Amino acid sequence: MFVADCLQVNREGHLCVEQQDTLELAKKYGTPLFVMSETQIRKNCRLYQDSLQRFYGGNGLVLYASKAFCCKEICRIAAEEGMGLDVVSGGELYTAISAGFPADRIYFHGNNKTQTELIAALEHGVGTIVVDNLEELELLDRLAEAKGVCQQIMFRVKPGVDAHTHQFIRTGQIDSKFGFALETGEALAAVQRAAGLSHLNLSGLHCHIGSQIFDTEPFLLAVRVMIGFLAQIRQETGQVLHQLNLGGGFGIRYTPENDPPAYETYMEQVSAAVHETCALLDFPTPYILMEPGRSIVGPAGITLYTVGSVKEIPGVRTYVSVDGGMTDNPRYALYQAEYQIMNAGLAAGEKTMRVTLAGHCCESGDLIGENLPVQDLQKGDVVAVLSTGAYNYSMASHYNRVPNPPVVMVKGGTDRVIVKRETWEDLTRMDV
Ligand code: LLP
């Protein structure tokens, strides 16, 4: 019935996260409210790590892609779980460092890192910078020289793999702003250039083929292409690069119809593909990195809203308006993303209505979803939107000067605020 293991229904028929009654949480903290399960997040981290151990002898590292949800507490949890961290901006880096995340396990991404961001990365001793373009390569070498260090880098490469997902989140094909293309020879030229730069140490290659991918085949294809390129680099330059970062992108269940493969299946197949391709090309098996974001935090989070009005337009549709919307969850507006919703107080009940769940912004497109099956809903009811742990809070905006909701973490019968609710005062803090 549910899209995540951390969700249950109690005897009163209320939706629970880790056995904590969501109606109680809504009463205690107010709505809109993000609720996340720490146990689920930790479990997801371990599933990846265990399968890396089991199928690849642990010769690698799982990085949490913090863009999915970044705050200090999530960085602390990822650090405690022994994860590495993918950051993609100075702000994510700052958050991680402020949380005490070990800098040597941080991988810094981005297609246009500023000089300020690169200097910050060098200052903090970021383990690896994933270089996206030649301008960045030259700049970073100069900055590392000025600092008197030799910085470890990887190159982001476009393997030319089409992951059959929404075009906005498909990044592995040649027409992408990210990385060096293989087909054009650009990637090989960059490797050759790096060999001549004395303050950079190229450790390997990175690719990321998209997000919310259900099929394992595009990942396996990317593995073959990338190892093929590693072998080509050895042949053309004599260099053997030992690290391969396969990016993130593993799909999760937003609706009961979604059926992503288990992480174990993914890892088993990837591992087999790496071993086969390496054997074929007589190339040493690389240290593997992967960067799940959505699949670590997505299923572990829900959003609670309070219904303000139910507007039935006969023969057209029923609008249910809530006290949040596109400011805390822009994914329907951006990608027509699907979610499962429920009346948190009637969670086991039959879904008798079909509604359009609308936010409170001054914009018709401010919707969380359309034609959504749900139990009876009336003013004052709490609605839960499931699987909102990834790319919701991290993509929140202040449109219409709407403050961002708080994030409450539940764990084994306890609950605590990990990100506070913003106030109207917070919204004017930068105003002069
Ligand atoms: N690594 C790199 C280099 C990435 O660009 C991404 C996501 C990830 C890892 C993590 O991918 P994940 O495992 O979370 O799929 N805002 C969109 C998703 C954008 C993903 C961007 N890059 C959404 O809401 O669906």
Describe the SSE topology.
Elements: E1 7-9, E2 15-17, E3 20-21, H1 22-29, E4 33-37, H2 38-56, E5 60-65, H3 72-80, E6 84-87, H4 90-98, E7 106-108, H5 115-124, E8 128-131, H6 134-147, E9 151-158, E10 180-181, H7 186-195, E11 200-206, H8 217-237, E12 243-245, H9 263-281, E13 287-290, H10 294-297, E14 301-313, E15 317-322, H11 331-335, E16 341-343, E17 353-358, E18 367-374, E19 382-386, E20 407-411, E21 414-419, H12 424-427
Parallel strand pairs: 4-20, 5-6, 5-13, 6-7, 7-8, 8-9, 9-10, 9-11, 11-12, 12-13, 15-17
Antiparallel strand pairs: 1-2, 2-3, 4-14, 14-15, 14-19, 16-19, 17-18, 20-21
Helix pairs in contact: 2-9, 5-6, 8-9
The chain binds ligand LLP.
Q: How would you characterize this protein structure?
A:
The protein has helices at residues 22-29, 38-56, 72-80, 90-98, 115-124, 134-147, 186-195, 217-237, 263-281, 294-297, 331-335, 424-427; strands spanning 7-9, 15-17, 20-21, 33-37, 60-65, 84-87, 106-108, 128-131, 151-158, 180-181, 200-206, 243-245, 287-290, 301-313, 317-322, 341-343, 353-358, 367-374, 382-386, 407-411, 414-419. With 432 residues, the protein is of the alpha/beta class. The chain folds into two domains: 7-30 and 300-427, Lyase, Ornithine Decarboxylase, Chain A, domain 1, CATH 2.40.37.10; 38-296, TIM Barrel. Strands 4, 14, 15, 16, 17, 18, 19, 20 and 21 form a nine-stranded mixed beta sheet that branches. Strands 5-6-7-8-9-11-12-13 form an eight-stranded parallel beta barrel, surrounded by six helices. A hairpin with an 8-residue loop joins β17 (353-358) and β18 (367-374). α8 (217-237) runs parallel beside α9 (263-281). It is globular and about 70 Å long. Ligand LLP binds at residues 65, 67-68, 86, 109, 169, 208, 211-212, 247-250, 291-295, 331, 335, 391.
